Fold DUF993 family protein.
Amino acid sequence: MIRLPDATGALRAYVPRAEPTTFTPGRPPLRSRVVYSAAHVVADPFADSTPDGPAAVDWETTLAFRRHLWSHGLGVAEAMDTAQRGMGLDWAGAAELIRRSGAEAKAVGGLIACGVGTDQLTGPATLAEVRAAYEEQLAVVEETGARPILMASRALAATAAGPEDYLEVYGALLRQSAEPVILHWLGPMFDPALGGYWGSGDLDRATDTFLAIIEANADRVDGVKVSLLDAGREVALRRRLPAGVRCYTGDDFHYPELIAGDEQGYSDALLGIFDPLGPLAAEAVRTLDADDPAGFRALLDPTVPLSRHLFRAPTRYYKTGVVFLAWLAGHQDHFTMVGGVQSARSLPHLARAYELADGLGLFPDPERARARMARLLAVHGVDPAVHGVDQEGETA
């Protein structure tokens, strides 16, 4: 057993599960849905860096995690919000990540899409400068052969005077893209600087502008990623998309029902929560491939409490929980993040994340996860032992 703190500071005993749920890599490709996991980056814990300095990335471990996702049949959405883009990872680091992951994807035959933004801009910018920044990043992604994801731009949100400016910038980018792109609508709950995107704080008007861009360039749009945490709005948008344009859900609160879909359609997926859920998510989609929607929901519905916990407000700090679970699961040897963002969530929050993930069987070695959780508790001054049970040591 192990003692875990709750939100009041009280300690209670928790009995970890003894065995993990095993998901075998190397299974057949996913067929019924296109599924991307937005993947985190692994920091170099030995770098002499500061939170406001350039990101120090452990490249080998970062790429190994991508190989883990590909081995289960998932695509990788690279250099996105989950990779701390604009929150510890600057454009120089993101460009290096895109190049390295693009080469790795070619080597293993992995599906990859990469974020295109404007985060090299450091101050007020004109529309021409925003467009040029997008074009610079688009060229880097296209050179790797990855599918571009046109991410929402803080600079464009600050510069645009109205919907017409979004129509102009996005229209120009789509006309010159070599391959169809994914358009990304990231809500202000993920990034407060993106409030009023598409030229209006009214979501109905913003949706109309978004759809106008898509309809004018439907042959240049593979799909749209919607991250508004509003299932009803996503379904309504999905039903208005031109034929052939996919809807990739980015809703980390309602993804099972959105991916399962209804009689009028379904969402594919591009999700940060599929970083810790990768193997389980892939197994769920394979169940859907076998025409078993009830089995799909039976696998994925129980994961929603963990996702809602990790993505609770302030939602932008969900990355801390994602990296924490990667450490507990053994995908990296430390709980250090670029920008020092490991400090963004409280000990009770992390303890609850451990409990929920353990209950789902997400840890390949539950004893290692328990030992690492105990070590984190000890660093915070908590004696994790229960009634003299020895909690020291860590399994290899």
The longest strand covers residues 221-227. Residues 28-316 form a domain with the TIM Barrel fold (CATH 3.20.20.70). The chain has one domain: 28-316. Confidence is low (pLDDT under 50) at residues 387-396.
